[in-house]
Amino acid sequence: GGYHGKSTLLRALAGGVHDRPPGDGREYCVAVPSAVSVRAEDGRPVSGLDISPFLSRLPGPGVNTARFSTREASGSTSQAAAVMEALEAGTECLLVDEDVSAANFMSRDGRMRALIQDESITPLLYRVNGLYDELGVSTVVVVGSVGDWLDVPHRVLCTDRYVAVDLTQKARSVSETFSYGHVQYAGRGVVHRLLWNEAGSSRAPRTRAVRNAGAFGRPALTEDRRRIVLSPSRAGAANQDADAGVIDMGRCE
Known about the structure:
Layout: H1 6-15, E1 36-38, E2 46-49, E3 68-70, H2 75-88, E4 93-97, H3 103-106, H4 110-115, H5 128-135, E5 138-142, E6 157-160, E7 163-166, H6 168-178, E8 182-184, E9 190-193, E10 209-210, E11 221-222, H7 232-235
Parallel strand pairs: 1-4, 4-5
Antiparallel strand pairs: 2-3, 6-7, 8-9, 10-11
């Protein structure tokens, strides 16, 4: 519900990248140093960034989402850019608040999928498990109105009068009642299966990202040599690697 502390908790996690002195009141709210908040920013510029994992195409002549540039991004393109920039910078945790996100970037319900089948946007809802399993990147999402998110999490916390309560098992029961054991998107096949029959509520990622010390010098690689993220707009003129700017998230389905 509203005014129970969801967004406040997320902001506290965002601030948890900094050390706090004892007695500050926030010293027990800790996040990994690379955690970053991502949100929609209508009107922001984007230069030479690959947002194709979320937007396969956009209208207009010569628009290439694999090397997307604009002086005035929309809500969905700006948030896709924010996620890809965070991955490029080496984040291990994305912090997302429904209240400041683009609705069509976050999720898409069954009725809209049935009405608009040729949709170019793959919402974040259908990417979060792939990001975790393949790249080792966790996503903390604050939601209060879209129940589709109950189909994908490893852990569900409810804030009730500013107290966090674990509702993972209840959320799984709700998901079993309203879903069919898998999530399918726009006729493209099953994008991920739900974890109802697996022991526990979480699992370790199959691969972890191996990042170079010079994060913007060469593309970061996973253990099985799949390319993650490096945009040529941030690689620097000295980087002549043929793989620069390529984002292979095909297995994040």
